[in-house]
Amino acid sequence: MVVEALPGVGGRLHRVQAFGVDLLRTPPTAGVHREDPFFWGAYHMVPWCNRAPTAPLVVAGRQVELSANFPDGSAIHGEVYEAPWEVVGESTLRIEAGGGAWPWRYEVHARFRVAPASCGLTVELRNLDDAPMPAGIGLHAWFAKPLRVAVPARRVFTDNIAPRARPQPVEPPFDLRRLDVMADGLDATWTELTSNSVDLAWPSHQLRATFRFSETAAFLVAASPADKDAVAVEPQTHAPPALRRLVGHEPGAPALLGAGDALAVDYELVVERSEGPPSPGR
Known about the structure:
Layout: E1 2-6, E2 12-18, E3 21-22, H1 32-35, E4 42-45, E5 51-52, E6 57-59, E7 62-64, E8 75-76, E9 86-89, E10 92-98, E11 105-115, E12 118-127, E13 133-135, E14 138-144, E15 148-150, E16 153-157, E17 168-169, E18 187-193, E19 197-202, E20 207-213, E21 219-223, E22 230-236, H2 242-247, E23 255-257, E24 262-273
Antiparallel strand pairs: 1-2, 2-3, 4-14, 5-8, 6-7, 9-10, 10-11, 11-12, 12-24, 13-23, 14-22, 15-19, 16-17, 16-18, 18-21, 19-20, 20-24, 21-22
């Protein structure tokens, strides 16, 4: 397996290639990640995932006042998705951030592993501040279409923006428990996972994969925009929108990480050849 990371652009994954096939939405050059950082490769969402409000908001006793970085006027996907990371060891990257609009200091380590038919990544977020910090970790992976996906979840937040949304039992088109093509335009958060993994299949390349993640990533955002040649699969530690859920004591809010404490998520992608078209079931 070939894995290319970009320390200078968010410590993100530029390419994951198995059996000669690019599995991610990989741009023609690494510079495209800077021009359009949200729709390529696989990138880190830290210290929050998905949207956060830009209006001043008191969270855990401190005022958070973030800047908009997305056309809808929200602050999306954290602070480190395109910031330069430092190489601190073999296959290990680190960044220290926060202390400004996000009024807590923190550090993140990303440790990569590569094997012939698999790759892994462990992301650890540590609170460097002297007060509890809202903490979230997510990996925003764009897997190339044509693609089939299976999400083993019993419940779903059908709205990723409404702060008081409650998870509902999965029903079509949100029932993704069978390996199939995601409907165009679908964008939601699945929870109550029966296993911490997502099944993926590329029938045109006769490849199948299992994307595993640790139990700390109890929420799975997936999106299939009609105008993109990829599906977003995003295991993360909280449901969106993070800060409003925390302030409003809503389900799926991020945890408060104590001073000096750490939160970690481990990811693994295992790829194999399939001998024929994948069956419609898991």
